[in-house]
C-alpha cells in the first residue's frame, strides 16, 4: 500500500470499504522466538484478513506497551502514547476519505491503550486476534510457536524449552499469577515462556491461522 503513488492510492481508497491497521510489539519471547513475534503474527493474520475481506491494509505498528517484560528486552511506548498515535492516525485516515477503520491487536499489553479509540466521522473497531481461536493462548508456548512456524523462518525449535505451566493451578491461583504477569512477567516465569512450545508444529499453526481469519472475517463482514 505505501508503495502506491498518490493518485493510485486515492483510487484504491475509493474501491475499499474499510482500512485495517495491525498493532504488535517488540518484546522477549523466550530463547526460541524473535522479539518481533507479536508483530509478525498480527501482520500475517492481517494480510490474510485484508485479502479475504477486501480491506485496505496499512503498515503494522510494531511498538506496543510491553513494560511488564522488563528486565527482559522490550521496546515500548506508554498506553497513552499508543492511544494518541492510533487516534491521530484514525483522524488522518478520515481526512483522506476512509470512514471505517479496523485495528487488529497482536499483544495483550496493548488492550488498555486500544480502549475508546475514535475519530470524528469514523467508525473504529478494535479486535485482538487470539479471541477468535479456540486453542488456549500463551506466551511463546504451543500456540504462539505454532503460529510463528506457519508464518516465519525465524523460529529456533532446538532452543525451545517448557516454561511456566498454569495447567495444574486452581482457577484462583491462575488468576493471581496472570494478574502478576501483567506487571512483572519475570515473577511468573523466569524463562520468559508461558506454556510449552516443544510440541508446536507448522501444521497446527496453519490450522489456527485459518480458524482466526475465518472467524474474524465473519465479524468484519457484518461491519463493512
TrEMBL record:
Superkingdom of source: Archaea
Cofactor(s) named in the record: Zn(2+)
Molecular function in Gene Ontology: hydrolase activity, acting on carbon-nitrogen (but not peptide) bonds, in linear amides; metal ion binding
Gene Ontology biological process terms from the UniProt entry: riboflavin biosynthetic process
Keywords: Hydrolase, Metal-binding, Zinc
Protein known as: Creatininase
Protein species of origin: Candidatus Nitrosotenuis uzonensis
